[in-house]
Amino acid sequence: MSSSVLIALALLAPAEPPDPLLGAPESQEPITPEPSRAKRPRRTRDRNHRFLPLPHLSEQPAVGLMLGGSLNYSYRRPGEEFNRGYLSAWSRVSTRGVQDHILSGRVRDMLGRREIFNFGLMVIVDPVFAYYGVNNHENIAGTDITGSYNWARMENYGGWFSFEHPLWQLHRPGKAVGTLRHYSGVVFFYDRVKAYEGSRMAVSDPQLAGDARRGILRGGLSWDTRDNDWSPHEGSLIDLMVDAAGPYTASSTSWGRVHASARHYWPLGTSKLLLAHRVTFDALWGAPPLMALGEFGGLFPIDAYGGAFVGRGFARRRFIGEIKATAGAELRFRPVELKVGRHKLGLGFDGFLEIGMVSRKIADLFKYAYPSGGPGVLLIWDRFIVFRVEAGFSREGGAVYLQSEHAF
């Protein structure tokens, strides 16, 4: 990272908050008289509100080099690790013509009950959308994996709104509060799929081309004991979600999904060394559309299996089907922490291993497995911004990823 970028981050990023009151609710603050608005120093008030414009740089083979930027706003009270309010506006375009424009927000604990509201709007235009066939386990490598034969054009327009309500809390001395939440949400997307002449989709699966509506009702439970949602040092995040779609949700077809995932973070004797691991199971039924076949659902839907967040080393959405499972582990080592003004920049490394399975029937899930792994470099700014550069390797080759957040 260049010195000019570090200077810009130092000027624009939020000051590092003091350590939280461990074991206390996020909303708890020292019991001191509140000064009047006229006497309260402006500098103290402003520390609650943080604006951070950021350039964006990412890369993965099926997308190309993606450039753009975002404007980020967060509201966080002194002594807290979690943002009470977070808004982000993204705009990015890649060298292969892929573009996405996203407006998203998260509001946490504004009612004093650790509730979370999530909302957003998104537009994606992808002229090199990867399609390798449904349940295709044949080995594809070299120029075949990146060639235009596996391209389609995909456009997605839509948004989401969800509410997470706390059901029960576990207060543990010296650790972050554990919270069991109920999740409910609505998602709606309009997909436009075009098969290029002579492409795999046009030759093998022309019925997948056309327009589709994905109206989804989503509900479930989550258990969160993490000490930070951007770069956790300890704790876990477990979620169980069910999706339902049909004419009653304005969906083009009737289908459903059950998704379960567990992420755990274990400090290994010191906060500088961490073992993180994730296991996920995802099953679809009915007549799911193309986009649903190539993603994991849950709290954080992502392309699967293959790409920058799951199945690193395989091409994006390399294996798709109704039944998917994955297990992965990362060893994160952050030996260097630099002071930049009032902020901290952590420099470190990671190594990861993953294995995934995809099938059309649950009885066939264990017939094929796709292992991958590799090393990476991490830059972590105030546990608020994470930048990783990773190399993933698989039986079909390798890939380099530049991303602005942890894989999980």
CATH architecture assignment name: Beta Barrel
pLDDT < 50 stretches: 1-40
The SSE string, one letter per element, is HHEEEEEHEEHEEEEHEEEEEEE
CATH names the topology as Porin
Number of strands: 18
| Biggest sheet features | 16 strands, antiparallel
Sheet with the most strands: spatial strand order: 1-2-3-4-5-6-7-8-9-10-11-14-15-16-17-18
CATH class: Mainly Beta
Helical residue percent band? under 10%
Mean pLDDT: 85
Strand residue content? over 45%
Q: What structural category characterises the helix and strand content?
A: mainly beta
Shape: globular
Distance between the first and last residues' Cα: 23 Å
Radius of gyration, rounded? 22 Å
Number of domains: 1
CATH superfamily: membrane protein fhac: a member of the omp85/tpsb transporter family
Description:
With 408 residues, this protein is mainly beta. The protein has a single domain (3-30, 37-403), classed as membrane protein fhac: a member of the omp85/tpsb transporter family (Porin), CATH 2.40.160. It is 7% helix and 53% strand. The strands form 2 sheets. It has a 16-stranded antiparallel sheet. Strands 12-13 form a two-stranded antiparallel sheet. A hairpin with a 7-residue loop joins strand 4 and strand 5 (116-130). The longest helix has 10 residues, at 3-12. Mean pLDDT is 85; it is low at 1-40.
